[in-house]
């Protein structure tokens, strides 16, 4: 079954802060020293770009170093292999850049920063021109890769447009980077974001930042997201956006472009790139006044946002995120963060704030402990402020509302093949109901049944038109869809099915013969008999562990329904103790087809009621 592990990182240059040395000019000794001290700091990167290996003999070299004040006499120099080069420096971006040419082997870059005649900083790093340059797109189905990237970028930009963020454009270098890493993951499994230099045949860099620089990407502000066994770009992006850590990159306003990679296992990689800006912005999701927000999320992400609560792989309410994007040395201080419903009642959440975070300090996650209520308006309040590196604190508090989906909403259905069995995957735009029951039928025969993450397959799927019923106790409704399945000869990845869903159309819910809605059994327990196929005169005997009320042992509480939801004319017989009941076949026997024995919640003689009903499907030959 699908591996839902989602990895994440943002490979940013982590700036350190260094105060400039305080000096007094010799000719100004008559003045007070305090009037002549240089009050400034340096933000700088641990290393520059590129680092590790590079594919190009003429790489673009850059290094981030920014002074908090330029009202000083300063000089920033770059040396390549011991010789000073004519590098350009931008006070706006803090980037020192140089276009090198005709390099080979290992090269050393050194940057020296001087202020008021004194050396304030010296940083060095190496990079090596690869003599076995990687060509990640060679031999690949480039039409498929372009299709997947187009799906992904279109979906990313849908989210970003709803958030009033700049859209991303495709970047060929980032696509090469992402494809190279997906190639690496295909051969060397369970690698996540890291590569091992010992695997020289496909190695392009330990980190996402090294890999982007390997292919010559000029910007140092980059990120990466990974998700596994995906049918395409759109679904991959939805899964990434649902996961709160991954969402941070997708809605980062400073990213300007992206490229994707995709391999035969369905592993999807997206690399982002852009320029860090001095302005700041708060981005919220779900966004203010959003309608039809999802109600749920299956918490399975790396890093695990619930690690401090010792929770993982559980159903929760849909994650709410507050993210501050601004100068890296700004400190986000969160005084409190709450979620309330329309009645003003506070909702219990797993709260993740900067104080306890070790994967970024500029965000807040509120993950409701229970699945959210459909059609409910929620209010989020985050009281927070920024402590900048210099200057006054800035209030960045936000209060906003969103409303959850009111009805079951299915956005896509697809099939995956595992061990020669087709597994039905249903993507819910409304957020999954963990307790929903989904059945797929054709010509009166049940082919499969899903409850939660478990699937029971009764018959192998074949091309045709099916009826898919979704019974959702959480949304308190039943939805019926017509699903068209056809043969699929254009397989995208190893788990792709030879069958594909080509049409999905919502239809009318099945009714009983008298026109009343068919009963809903999604929250009932199901008995699965070792034998599911019987002759037409099959009788059933049910034993209870205590005596039941006589008024409950009637065909209003114990009955059999056919595949259309209509009751069958069975007869009931119970013993004098009320601890056993027999369900006798119709006098003329059952017709061939599928049936369900249904036991509604019964009450015992002591007044104790069953917590849920029971169903048992069976087939008459």
Automatic annotation (TrEMBL):
Coiled coil: none
Signal sequence, start to end: 1-26
Keyword Signal: yes
Top-level taxon in the UniProt lineage: Bacteria
Domain SCP: 153-268
InterPro entries: CAP_dom (IPR014044), CAP_sf (IPR035940)
Keywords: Signal
Stated name of the protein: SCP domain-containing protein
UniProt organism field: Pontibacillus yanchengensis Y32
Highest classification ranks of the organism: Bacteria, Bacillati, Bacillota, Bacilli, Bacillales
């Amino acid at each position: 079954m699908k591996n839902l592990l989602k990895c994440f990182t943002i490979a940013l240059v982590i700036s350190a802060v260094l105060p400039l040395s305080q000096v007094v000019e010799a000719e100004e000794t008559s003045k007070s020293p305090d009037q002549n001290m240089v009050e400034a700091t340096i933000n700088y990167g641990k290393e520059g770009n590129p680092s590790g290996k590079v594919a190009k003999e003429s790489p673009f070299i850059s290094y981030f170093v920014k002074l908090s004040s330029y009202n000083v006499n300063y000089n920033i120099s770059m040396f390549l292999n011991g010789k000073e080069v004519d590098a350009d420096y931008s006070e706006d971006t803090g980037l020192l850049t140089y276009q090198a040419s005709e390099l080979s082997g290992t090269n050393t870059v050194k940057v020296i920063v001087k202020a008021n005649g004194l050396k304030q900083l010296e940083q060095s790093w190496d990079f090596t021109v690869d003599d076995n340059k990687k060509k990640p797109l060679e031999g690949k189905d480039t039409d498929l890769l372009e299709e997947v990237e187009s799906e992904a970028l279109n979906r990313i930009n849908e989210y970003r447009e709803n958030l009033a963020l700049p859209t991303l454009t495709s970047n060929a270098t980032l696509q090469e980077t992402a494809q190279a890493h997906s190639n690496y993951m295909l051969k060397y499994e369970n690698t996540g974001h890291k590569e091992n230099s010992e695997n020289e045949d496909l190695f392009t860099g330990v980190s996402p930042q090294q890999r982007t620089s390997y292919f010559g990407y000029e910007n140092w502000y980059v990120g990466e997201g990974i998700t596994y066994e995906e049918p395409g770009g759109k679904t991959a992006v939805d899964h990434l956006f649902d996961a709160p850590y991954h969402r941070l990159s997708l809605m980062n306003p400073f990213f300007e472009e992206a490229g994707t990679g995709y391999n035969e296992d369905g592993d999807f990689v997206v690399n982002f790139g852009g320029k860090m800006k001095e302005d700041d912005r708060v981005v919220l999701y779900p966004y203010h006044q959003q309608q039809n927000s999802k109600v749920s999320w299956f918490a399975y992400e790396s890093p695990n946002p619930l690690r401090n609560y010792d929770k993982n792989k559980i159903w929760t309410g849909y994650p709410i995120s507050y993210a501050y994007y601004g100068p890296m040395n700004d400190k986000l201080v969160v005084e409190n963060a709450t979620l309330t419903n329309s009645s003003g009642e506070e909702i219990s959440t797993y709260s993740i704030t900067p104080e306890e975070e070790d994967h970024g300090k500029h965000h807040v996650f509120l993950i409701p402990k229970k699945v959210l209520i459909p059609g409910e308006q929620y209010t989020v309040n985050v009281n927070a402020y920024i402590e900048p590196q210099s200057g006054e604190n800035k209030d960045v508090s936000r209060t906003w509302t969103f409303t959850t989906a009111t009805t079951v909403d299915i956005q896509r259905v697809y099939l995956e093949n595992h061990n020669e069995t087709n597994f039905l995957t249903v993507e819910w735009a409304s957020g999954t109901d963990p307790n929903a029951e989904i059945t797929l039928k054709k010509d009166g025969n049940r082919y499969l049944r899903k409850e939660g993450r478990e699937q029971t397959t009764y018959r192998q799927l074949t091309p045709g038109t099916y009826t898919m019923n979704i019974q959702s106790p959480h949304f308190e409704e039943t939805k019926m869809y017509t699903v068209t399945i056809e043969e699929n000869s254009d397989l995208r990845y190893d788990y792709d099915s030879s069958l594909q869903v080509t049409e999905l159309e919502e239809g009318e819910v099945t009714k009983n013969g008298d026109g009343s809605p068919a009963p809903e059994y999604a929250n009932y327990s199901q008995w699965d008999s070792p034998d599911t196929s019987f002759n037409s005169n099959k009788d059933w005997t049910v034993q209870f562990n205590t005596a039941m009320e006589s008024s409950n042992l009637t065909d209003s509480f114990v009955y059999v329904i056919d595949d259309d939801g209509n009751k069958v004319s069975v007869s009931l017989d119970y013993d004098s103790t009320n601890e056993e009941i027999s369900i006798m076949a119709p006098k003329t026997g059952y017709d061939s087809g599928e049936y369900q024995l249904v036991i509604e919640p019964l009450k015992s003689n002591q007044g104790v009621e069953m917590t849920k009903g029971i169903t048992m499907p069976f087939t008459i030959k």
